[in-house]
Amino acid sequence: MIQKLIDKYCKLLAWLIVGCLALMVVLVFTNVVLRYAMNSGIAVSEELSRWLFVWLTFLGGIIAMHEGAHLGTDTLVSRLPLAGKKACLVIGHVLMLFVCWLLFKGALDQVKINWDSTSAAMEVSMAWFYGCGMVFAVSGAVILLNHLWRLVMGQLTEAELIGIRESEEEPIDVPKPIQ
Q1: Following DSSP, what letter does each residue of 6-18 receive, concatenated?
Q2: Which of 9, 92, 110, 175 is the most exposed place for a label (fewest CB within 10 A)?
Q3: % of the chain exceeding 90 in pLDDT
Q4: Where in this chain does the entry annotate a coiled-coil region (predicted)?
Q5: pLDDT tens digits for 144-179?
């Protein structure tokens, strides 16, 4: 159930990223044309593009965490027995949950500090800028907790215990869950 919700959430995030990227391209291209053709420009273009880039980076990080697409190495873990792979997964996920907490706490502090500060061009609260760290931290924690839950319930495959992919070109095979 929660896995399907996470899948749908990540698809929504992917579409948001597409929207952010499309808007960035339109803003920057239009601004360049206006500067060269009419010696003017869109005042908020640069700032909004920067904000969109930061948000799409964090949203992309959520999707990458869900898909196991972050950089990693399996030199040691792939050679361990099943129990060792499970132990490494639990240790790694607990450490990542701690990092999610640190990121959430730091982003929350920045949101509180910058709540009344506004951006230079858009005059929007800077809390929105720093809020992306909170969104990433909460989303990442949910994904990690779901992964741990699936481990406890015996729903993870041995390939998922390693947590990285060999190549982007190769599709992820879906073997049967381990017991």
Answers
A1: HHHHHHHHHHHHH
A2: 175
A3: 77
A4: none
A5: 999 999 999 999 888 888 877 665 555 555 455 555
Give CA torsion, residues 98, 99, 102, 106, to 10 deg. Answer: -160
Tokens of 39: 């010696």
Close Cβ partners of 154 (under 8 Å, ≥ 6 residues apart): 177, 178, 179
Cα distances from 4 to residues 10, 11, 154, in angstroms, run 10, 11, 17
Rounded to whole angstroms, the Cα distance separating 41 from 169 reads: 41
Read off the pTM: 0.86
Residue type, 110: Q
What Å distances lie between residue 82 and 50, 70, 164, CA to CA? Answer: 44, 22, 16
Give the angle 36-53-28 at the CA atoms, nearest 5°.
Answer: 10
Q: At what angle do helices 127-152 and 82-113 cross, to 10 degrees?
A: 160
**Residue 153 to residue 132: CA distance in whole angstroms:** 31
Q: What is the pLDDT of residues 3-48, one digit of tens each?
A: 999 999 999 999 999 999 999 999 999 999 999 999 998 989 999 9
For the chain, the domains span: 2-162
pLDDT bin (cut points 50, 70, 90) of residue 74 is confident
In eight-state DSSP terms, residue 168 is: S
